[in-house]
Description:
Layout: E1 22-26, H1 30-35, E2 36-39, E3 44-51, E4 58-67, E5 70-75, H2 81-94, H3 100-108, E6 140-147, E7 153-167, E8 183-189, E9 192-197
Antiparallel strand pairs: 1-6, 2-5, 3-4, 5-8, 6-7, 7-8, 7-9
Helix pairs in contact: 2-3
Amino acid sequence: MTxxxxxxxxxxxxxxxxxxxxxxxxxxxxxxxxxxxxxxIPGISLNATVQPTPLADIPLPGDTLTFGDLEITFLVDExxxxxxEIHGWMxxxxxxxxxxxxxxxxxxxxxxxxxxxxxSKSTDAGKVKYGAQALGPIFxxxxxxxxxxxxxANIEVRFSDVFPTTLSGLNFDQQADDVTYLSATVNFKxxxxxxATKGASRTTTTVT
Length: 208
């Protein structure tokens, strides 16, 4: 029989998490970052397997995690600069007009990813003249800071290898009854996300 002491199971924090107290940061999108109004911590799912038996099958945990999309909503500035930041990023990855659009994206982001840009290729051992470009510059890292009730940064949700997959359209309407400023939603895929305390060099997967 398991014996527990109720006093040792009391929570140490009694404040609730507020949906309005957050700050989103994304390296490639400084203008989008400033105007962000909504963000999410994506859900995750773990695949399950089944062990057959002569009676009821027994469910067993699998070993593959699936991450939901990172989704943010932001207000669009009147020059559409933050909207065009994402639009240009997606154009560079998809290069709908010319392959040079992808090369331009890599070139433009060497300063943010100095070890993965073109410059590093010239010193790589076994360099191939027409080899594939490094993919590092097409990705970014993102951080969602969850703030305390006093608006202090508390928990960081760190996303690795982020890139956009969908960007909503903008609808203009001269018959609108009131001015509702334009906003847009963008969905991102990423490798994974992890939790960390503010400023910590390591992430945590469990709470003790």
